[in-house]
Amino acid sequence: MSATRIDTLRKFETPEGVLLDLRVAGAAPRALAWLIDFLIRIAALMLVGIVAGILSISGIGEAIQAIAVFVVFWLYHVLCEVLWNGGTPGKHSMGLRVVHTDGTPVGWSASVARNLLRVADQMPSMAILFSAKFWMLPVPTYGLGLVMIMLDARGQRLGDRVGGTLVVYHERKPRPRVTQSGVEPWSPPIPLLATERRALLDFAERRPTWTIERQIELTDQLEPITGFTGKRGLDRALSLVAHLEDQR
């Protein structure tokens, strides 16, 4: 078996030209995460069903159930992934999260695309009867999705390929401090996005492997934030990294 099948660590390049090491998740942890989320969704629907039964006056109960089914089976993953650091309760419990293929946090369009394609990844699928109304709710076998995850070097199912996403292990180990002790921290005048903070830390970590010209070329892109280009802009960027490290 090749090393790429054993070690799931992959290198990906951010839009800023920084290489990230991401460990993609395999089929087993993703299946367990899905099972946890499925049980949570079923429990939520059962609770809604009880409430709907109490409010079954003039069709209000049925309307509540219909809305709940739509939210639980179509919006649950999207809302969790975008608003909760790329993960659902199941993914977080398994130490997983969804990111773009360049390592940046997943956005709305990518999350919607990857989750809409679950219908295709669930081929073939089965169904069970649920609630007193005998609604048919899908219980996916994820046959196609599991096969694609196991065969793809990046562990991408069809939805991931279309959405441009990866399911990776969440990095729990704190990064070592990479700026020199003599660098004075500098706080930016405007708040930085999570992707910008991560890119700066990655830049500082890999800076020793680049020429000074390449470092300046990259930090020149930060001129709207640092106010400088050239060597002075590089120094200001390193001061900004020192500030970020003090906040961790």
Features:
248 residues; alpha+beta; two-stranded antiparallel ribbon; 53% helix; disordered N terminus
Fold topology:
Layout: H1 3-6, E1 9-13, E2 19-23, H2 27-54, H3 60-83, H4 89-93, E3 96-100, H5 108-116, H6 118-121, E4 125-130, E5 135-140, H7 143-151, H8 158-163, E6 165-169, H9 194-206, H10 212-219, H11 223-226, H12 230-247
Antiparallel strand pairs: 1-2, 3-6, 4-5
How would you summarize this macromolecular structure in one to three sentences?
The protein has about 250 residues and is of the alpha+beta class.
User: What is the H/E order?
Assistant: HEEHHHEHHEEHHEHHHH
Number of helices: 12
* Biggest sheet layout: 2 strands, antiparallel
- Count all strands and give the number: 6
Shape: elongated
The class by helix and strand makeup works out as alpha+beta
Question: Nearest-angstrom radius of gyration?
Answer: 23 Å
- Order of adjacent strands in the largest pleated sheet: 1-2
